[in-house]
Amino acid sequence: MGEKIPLERIDANRWRIPMRYNDDMHVPGMIYADDELIESIVNDNALQQVVNVATLPGIVGHSLGMPDIHWGYGFPVGGVAATDAETGVISPGGIGFDINCGVRLLATDLLYDQVKGKVSELADQLYNTLPSGVGTDGMRILSADEMRDVMVHGAQWAVDAGYGLAEDLEVTEENGCLEGADPSTVSKHALERGRKQLGSLGSGNHFCEVQVVDHIYDQEVANVLGIGRKGQVVTTLHCGSRGIGHQVAEEFINLAESKQKEYGFELVDKQLACLPINSVDGQAYLGAMRCAANFAWANRQLLMHGVRQSFANIFGRKARPKDLPLVYDVCHNIAKMEEYEVDGQLRKLCVHRKGATRSFPAGHPAIPEKYRAVGQPVLIPGDMGRYSFMLVGDHGSMEQTFGSCCHGAGRRLSRTAAKKAIGNKELLELLEKRGITVRVHSKNLLSEESPQAYKDAQQVVNVVHNAGLAKLVVRLKPVVVVKG
DNA sequence: ATGTCC
């Protein structure tokens, strides 16, 4: 303990933690970062967590850290770990507490010039339409039977209930629904928590932002995605499964912890507690995780409907729902069964992505047909004061990172440190000065999400671009921020 | 992230 973790430089963007560091490691670690980002990573406990994850039973390839990596529960946020789907384990801590936390981006027909006179009105409208804050009820209260339908059918349920359009599902990862969701594995308490929260933003780093396309890296790809005009207004939603994801995670972390001895696991950190994928317990977690994931997709579908209503209310016929097409929806806290070549052999793997986005390259069958020639859209929100990015998956992700890349800027300061660094009032003034209109439910939480609490998202996306995991398409600047 | 402690 306390010993410096060795990092072997591979190239400008990659660093390896060799297996010789620790006898318990089954695979080496691999960190994606440039010279500057690696400094902040080394000063965090995240590297030790990459080492810990490398000791998981059945892990293959590398224990991976993306450039936005930072300390998390057991597994780092910004981490990817693949285990053998037949003989390996699944660890609830490797998915995280906010199951299927994710991001979706809607395009509009509007240019910033058409919107700038109504920014304040739009901010109010969005804030009043999208329920936000800790413990708030959602746009729709469900019966227990409806809740079960949401858990099984995901975003499709929302479309059938009148929220959004059928074509939205085509541009949602997994079409907004994972197969194998099993409501019988979700506790009554978890179901009860979710029942009241469908269509709610939540708190913390969750948000709705109106943004403007401010730089185009790849005009051709941007055109295919429908975001190819400089000055074009788009809207990004970032949120997850609210209370149900948290409850499912907590219950299965406790279950896994209580069964480590029974399954014969002796893990270096109890927060890595895991279950054999091929066990009743492992399958139960997967069934419940998928229920929470499907809830999250329905949740984002309802919120998006609220965004479309808000724009229509303010801009009338210039912003009808069909004029605000969903570009794409990605999840970044999830485990998926996917096939990859490992040492020349095609293997079925359980890919844990915790604060990591799927980034399938052009040609992959899981990509919607209209985007297949350019790659899967990858949405990378930055911080509320600077910028966010849209990328598309690149081929290197299949060879290096089990089809994955980063998910955001990555936290640089703890919530406590962030609060010390800047006051809420000062931060609000700073954002307004930059032309960003903010509506926040709980003003005393704003400092925790200040731009300086995060790494520079530009640096983070440059690394995944240069490493061949995803390709830069456009940069977006925030004009309206609505938060819990 | 989270009914920020059942």
UniProtKB/TrEMBL annotation:
Coiled coil: none
PANTHER family documented for this protein: RNA-SPLICING LIGASE RTCB HOMOLOG
Needed co-factor(s): Mn(2+)
Organism name: Tengunoibacter tsumagoiensis
Superkingdom assignment: Bacteria
Keyword Electron transport: no
Name of the protein in question: tRNA-splicing ligase RtcB
Xref: InterPro entries: RtcB (IPR001233), RtcB-like_sf (IPR036025)
EC number: 6.5.1.-
Family statement: Belongs to the RtcB family.
Active site: 407
Subunit structure of this chain's protein: Monomer.
Cofactor note: Binds 2 manganese ions per subunit.
Residues annotated as binding GMP: 205-209, 332-333, 381-384, 388, 407-410, 483
GO molecular function annotations of the record: GTP binding; metal ion binding; RNA ligase (ATP) activity; RNA ligase (GTP) activity
GO BP annotations listed: RNA processing; RNA repair
Keywords associated with the record: GTP-binding, Ligase, Manganese, Metal-binding, Nucleotide-binding, RNA repair
EC supergroup of this enzyme: ligase
Catalytic reaction equation(s): a 3'-end 2',3'-cyclophospho-ribonucleotide-RNA + a 5'-end dephospho-ribonucleoside-RNA + GTP + H2O = a ribonucleotidyl-ribonucleotide-RNA + GMP + diphosphate + H(+); a 3'-end 3'-phospho-ribonucleotide-RNA + a 5'-end dephospho-ribonucleoside-RNA + GTP = a ribonucleotidyl-ribonucleotide-RNA + GMP + diphosphate
Gene3D superfamilies in UniProt: tRNA-splicing ligase RtcB
List of residues binding Mn(2+) 1: 98, 206
Sites where the protein binds Mn(2+) 2: 238, 332
Cited Pfam families: RtcB (PF01139)
